[in-house]
Amino acid sequence: MPRDDRGNDVSVHMVSLESSSSEYQDVVERFQQTLDFKQNIVSVERIQNPFLYQAYQLRKQKMERDDGARNNERQLFHGTNPDNITKINTQGFDRSFSGSAHENLLPRNWIPMPRDDRGNDVTVHMVILESSSSEYQDVVERFQQTLDFKQNIVSVERIQNRFLYRAYQLRKQKMERDDGARNNERQLFHGTNPDNITKINMQGFDRSFSGSAHGENWVA
């Protein structure tokens, strides 16, 4: 994936396929089979979005486990308003695009995501919690319980990243199904180098970040 100005992998990368490639030809052939007459294909692009791919794989595993079978994957083609393309590439297919209240799947305490210059929801939103809020006080209390002595808390922020949240929920469902039990969720605190914080907020914990003092006493 290309890097942004901060040196982090971009969320989405569009790759124009060469018309001579087998990937291009396979997509065109499958698409033409859905039509009554052949269309002129201007271009074919591969959408590379690690967050959506991971969420898709988790959903696929869940379906395979529920159905007791594999080979349940199908390739479909879907038309849409050009205004939706960037949002779909970033967030995936979402019923909220058609007026459905898909946002109910997100935590109730989340606030609406800000929009970027193109009018799309940002990927990550950091929300500074009020020290008087129950959410703030709960985090501080849990954190202080892990220490031998109390620390001065400068601030507590909520990380709102819908892609990581949905991927987490899918992983949680899989663990519950594998273990045959619920209530398997635990809250932990993890220190890290400040240079890693933005990448973790964007992509989640990733072993590829290791090698830069993952276990040292920095707190995020």
Automatic annotation (TrEMBL):
Principal cellular location given in the protein's record: nucleus
Region annotation Disordered: where it falls in the sequence: 63-83, 175-197
Q: Does the keyword Phosphoprotein apply?
A: no
Record GO cellular component, one term: nucleus
* Biased composition annotated in UniProt, kind: Basic and acidic residues: 63-76, 175-188
Mind telling me which residue stretches traverse the membrane in this protein?
none
Q: Where in the cell is it found?
A: Nucleus
What is one process in the GO biological process aspect for this record? Answer: negative regulation of gene expression
> EC class of this enzyme?
transferase
Tell me where in this chain the PARP catalytic domain is found.
Answer: 111-220
Please name the GO terms that the record assigns under molecular function: NAD+ poly-ADP-ribosyltransferase activity; NAD+-protein mono-ADP-ribosyltransferase activity; transcription corepressor activity
Q: What Enzyme Commission number(s) apply to this enzyme? A: 2.4.2.-
Q: Which UniProt keywords apply?
A: Glycosyltransferase, NAD, Nucleus, Transferase
Identify this protein by name. Poly [ADP-ribose] polymerase
Could you tell me which species this protein originates from?
A: Desmophyllum pertusum
